[in-house]
Amino acid sequence: IPFHLFTECALIGQSLFGQEVYSNLRKEGHKIVGVFTVPDKNGQADPLALSAEKDGTPVFKFSRWRVKGKSIQEVVEAYRSVGAELNVLPFCTQFIPMDVIDFPKHGSIIYHPSILPRHRGASAINWTLIQGDKKAGFTVFWADDGLDTGPILLQQECDIKPNDTVDDLYNRFLFPEGVKAMVEAVQLIADGKAPQVPQPEEGATYEGIQKKENAQISWDQPAAALHNWIRGHDKVPGAWTIINDQVVTFYGSSLFDGSVPSGQPLAIEGATKPGLVTKNGLVLFGNDGKMLLVRNLQFEDGKMIPASKYFAAGETSAIELTEEEKKMAEDIKSIWVGILTNVPVIEDSTDFFKSGASSMHVVRMIEEIKQKYSGLQLHNEDVYMATKFADFIQMLVRRLRGEDKEEELIVDYVSKTVNNMTVKMPYQCFINGQFMDAEDGKTYDTINPTDGSIIAKVSYASVEDVDKAVAAAKDAFENGEWGKMNARERGRLMYRLADLMEKQQEELATIETIDSGAVYTLALKTHVGMSVQTFRYFAGWCDKIQGSTIPINHARPNHNLTFTKKEPIGVCAIVIPWNYPLMMLAWKSAACLAAGNTLVLKPAQVTPLTALKFAELSAEAGFPKGVINILPGSGGLVGQRLSEHPDIRKLGFTGSTPIGKQIMKRNKQKQVSAYCFLLTQGMGAVYFNKGENCIAAGRLFVEESIHDEFVKRVVRYLEGLCLK
Fold first, then answer.
1. What confidence score (pLDDT) does residue 724 get?
2. Which residue numbers in the chain have pLDDT < 70?
3. What is the C-alpha to C-alpha distance for residues 192 and 165, in angstroms, rounded to an integer?
4. Which of 46, 92, 119, 148 is catalytic?
5. Domain count within the chain
6. How large is the angle between the packed helices 609-621 and 581-594, nearest 10 degrees?
7. Are 496 and 471 contained in the same domain?
């Protein structure tokens, strides 16, 4: 067991980050001899102060440490009184005098959210994104006179995703890993192993503080630069422009590929081309002709709306609450009272943020509401969309009533009257919750094998469509509602989907029959029936996937153990054959979804229609956008791109042995589940499902003396199977 020394620290800083560093240092055995933080704001103490006061740690709240460049002596004396061996500055907005920085025997260390020497200055995270860096990170360095030039103790870095915002980077990496790094740095100092590496001047940059007044968007730039500017200010301070003589701030930017969508033009001051208000948001144009999409807009009064609702803003009238909903409103009001302790009375006009709340209070409020109303799906962004109490209650009530659901899914169908019913069949790619044509507009004919007639012209997915579908699945897994959803709710969605499949089983079986040539009764009972049961079975597993614990030391006073936690792996690709189109889909996708993964599925080129109908039902069941994506098309094009795509974490394949071998060769580093055609024997193995079986026998050996009679009986047997 390694032996560690411990040190006595003064913590100088604020915020949840400071609070976490404080708590983890204490947990590791380091003594915090004093906490120096900012004064209470609007009657509320900083989180760091709250934790320290609760523990009985001395807390000092100074509004400043110096005046006109000179230290305030009574402040410095109060600091020196705690006798710290090391100053730890996890996040500090105040200027700390050098006679405080240099006072402890170990000096002072400070956290900086960039890979120094790049992006020195107080807005380092913003500039990392604004300048389009591919890597982000942080540095723990030995504090200097405030210019971020001190020797480096340790650094860590991470990749930047295409649509990362400041909040994304901070929450995913800079916050959690930064807390760990600060604790590690203190331990290195206590053990006498902390390095002091001089910062190189090569590559050094220093950028100014980004404030609201200098965050205005300059429109004469490529789309990528506009995107970086907007996301580099998301959420603070917010990139803005002038629309209809009003300051409008943009949030939720992403690069937008494909053809120009239809929408209503919106003139923007300084832009050479109007934006387009579309069903997905506000489409903007760079000077290179490329596009970006903005999801949310905020007006000068603080109100935030979905960009897609710009022209409908203010049209929604207030709804009258039922008695039960009024009770809920009182419950929510009590939560607001508990958070906004400086506000004597919560009124309809009370603004959450103007009353002193911050992002940490948003997290607290949402968690408290979810504890009281477990079935309610609520996200941080919802609070920013409705900051006043009355608006927030209206939003919640609409959410509970189901009135704020997204616009109804638009589906173009091919309709056919067959088997005494009219079947409606989607024929386009299903990507990110929408049916759409292939990127290049190509289609192909899917044929009824019974008579050779064309059933429909189906979208022929391209490599670009694969990339869009994988990106949607990845975003849904990492950032969307699916990744935040609890396992029980995931199971409810799968049960709902199974119910819808059962409700429309005759239509599904008929589509399966005309598209694959399956016998209708077999399609109804087996292809569809087993698919429904498969989804119900795996729906029940959603909240029963468990890890395990293994005792490793029974010695007292601590009973030590290790534990495993089973987690979803991410985006899965599924490639299925033509013999059981819907059942193969169910076998592979149900387990994938139950575990919390997202998927991109390529049905067999000759049997795509039940998979596309399944996509429609999944949207009706309420699966979030991007969780399920269906791409009809060529195995050599779509299947190959899926097998090679770097963001696919696992590939499930059923098909021929030669193709399986190719996939295995291309995916040595990827998990692959491949099932190939095998040979067996027996009458049932030959004729079950018209012989379209993974284990169907290729031939039967019959004694010569009974050959002719046997053939006659086979013919009669087959005639009896024909669908009249």
1. 38
2. 1-4, 258, 313-316, 374-375, 377, 403-408, 553-559, 665-698, 702, 714, 716-724
3. 37
4. 148
5. 5
6. 40
7. yes
User: Are residues 235 and 200 part of one domain?
Assistant: no
Beta bridge partners of 650: 572, 671
Task: Give the whole-angstrom CA distance, residue 512 versus residue 614.
Answer: 11
What CATH number does residue 353 fall under? 1.10.1200.10
Q: What distance in Å separates the CA atoms of residue 42 and residue 653, rounded to the nearest whole number?
A: 59
Element (H, E) at 252: strand 246-256
Which whole-number Å values give the CA distances from 407 to 308, 402, 404, 410, 434, in the listed order?
11, 12, 9, 8, 11
Whether 214 is covered by a domain: the verdict is: no
Instruction: Tell me, yes or no, whether 197 and 259 share the same domain.
Output: no
Domain boundary among 174, 207, 240: 207
| Ramachandran sector of residue 185 (left: φ over 0; alpha: ψ -120 to 50; beta: rest) | alpha
Domain that holds residue 711: 680-720
pLDDT of residue 3: 44
For residues 197 and 296, state if they share a domain.
no
Q: pLDDT by residue (tens digit) across 419-464?
A: 999 999 999 999 999 999 888 889 999 999 999 999 999 999 999 8
**Domain check: are 519 and 599 in the same one?**
yes
Q: Which two tokens stand for residue 87?
A: 């100053």
694 in active site: yes
429: annotated active-site residue? no
Q: Do 355 and 492 have their domain in common?
A: no
CB atoms within 10 A of CB 496: 18
- Which is nearest to 526 in space by CA: 724, 689, 697? 689
Query: Is position 215 within any domain?
Result: no
Separation CA 42–CA 339 (nearest Å):
12
What is the H or E stretch that residue 697 is in? Answer: none
> What pLDDT sits at residue 559?
63
Are the C-beta atoms of residues 607 and 654 closer than 8 Å to each other? Answer: no
558 found inside a domain: no
Instruction: Name the active-site residue from 30, 112, 119, 645.
Output: 112
Cα(697)–Cα(717) distance, integer angstroms? 17
pLDDT per position as a tens digit, 38-95: 999 877 889 999 999 999 999 999 999 999 889 999 999 999 999 999 999 998 888 9
pTM: 0.61
CA-nearest of 299, 32, 371, 328 to 182 is: 32
> Can 112 be counted among the known catalytic residues?
yes
Considering the domain boundaries, does residue 83 fall inside one?
Answer: yes
Intra-chain end-to-end CA distance of the chain, in Å: 78
Do both 377 and 432 map to the same domain?
Answer: no
